[in-house]
Amino acid sequence: xxGVSQNPRHKITKRGQNVTFRCDPISEHNRLYWYRxxxxxxxxxxxYFQNEAQLEKSRLLSDRFSAERPKGSFSTLEIxxxxxxxxxxYLCASRPTRGGPHEQYFGPGTRLxxx
Amino acid sequence: xxKITQTQPGxxxxxxxxxxxxxxxxxxxxSYGLFWYKQPSSGxxxxxxxxxxxxxxxxxxxxxxxxxxxxxxxxxxxIxxxxxxxxxxYFCAMRAQARGADGLTFGKGTHLIIQP
Lengths: 115, 116
Known about the structure:
The structure holds two protein chains of two kinds. Chain A is mainly beta.
């Protein structure tokens, strides 16, 4: 059983470019979460999916951010017209909801640097 | 809205001593869960322990225990017999379960350094 995986692990992009990150949750985990963590801070919740349905979005998720989970398995997070303030670690997590543990299992993260 | 407060930005502890990391929370929801995660310098978030708001007993997991004081809205993490490998960032988090909300709210963390 593999853990949550995220790709790429690192991304450097120029301001104004679009970027897309991918998250593969633990198999059979029907809930998938995205968080953003800036240096010296705790993770901040962005959004989560149950299967393919996006059930909650944080106010942090501006119009430039979009997340999808089209088949209820992997998810993508796209940031359009990146800004320097988008530089952060983007974390993905998953968990089951039926008879499973309460905790979320986190992936290694994608570190985004916007120059 | 939920809020987690961790008032210790950093702590130095001698190896083999017990350490308590403070966490207070604020929520108006009657049903919630409290979590502690460890984040080593490598960056991954490692789950340590969970406490439900209706749990009667304090949670324990090996060397970790959670000192849950509901009236004070505190959920301190106690690590017994600290080890060098315990050096890391520690985050307290909460999930309030009303209205379909399921995202975790994290505190700013405590940087724990275990000294030999």
